[in-house]
Amino acid sequence: MTDKTMEADxxxxxGEAKPKGKGKLIIIAAxxxxxxxLGGGGAAAYFMGMFGGKAAHKEAEKPAVPxxxxxxxxxxxxxxxxxxxxxxxxxxxxxxxxxxxxxDQDRVKTMQPRIIDNFQTYLRDLRLEDLQGAQGLFRLRxxxxxRINAAVAPAKVTDILFQEMxxx
Length: 168
Fold this sequence. Notes:
Number of strands: 4
Helix content: 40-55%
Structural class: alpha+beta
CATH superfamily of the largest domain: Band 7 domain
Number of domains: 2
CATH topology of the largest domain: Tetrahydropterin Synthase, Chain A
Order of helices and strands: HHEEEHHHE
Number of helices: 5
Distance between the termini: 105 Å
CATH class of the largest domain: Alpha Beta
Shape: elongated
């Protein structure tokens, strides 16, 4: 072998191997990224019901029924809150009730005196600190909802909407 042959084999062979290795690495990385992209897209399509599974057929079979909410407005409530000092605190509420079924409206209107009595009894026991912040309002809504559903059973009130709330 001559020096020229050795140079061509030794240096040329090593020089060519490095670019091939980087090229393979780029191709493998691109193929892996493509597999991840297609797999993620396929999973998303599956969970959204695009493959026509049972969930997609069940949704197609259901007729679109508009939900009509029924509301009942309660009279304004003005209640003296519990206080330890000389100053009296009041709460004024304007409440609307959301009913589960339109047929429950008559039952709620019939039981309105009991509803107001339950509300007044509960509200008189509250302190000003109990009504502070969003958490206080959430607790108030939950407590009133429990009391109203006990009063109007078997009818069901699904939500209490505060139209006005003034704490003084």
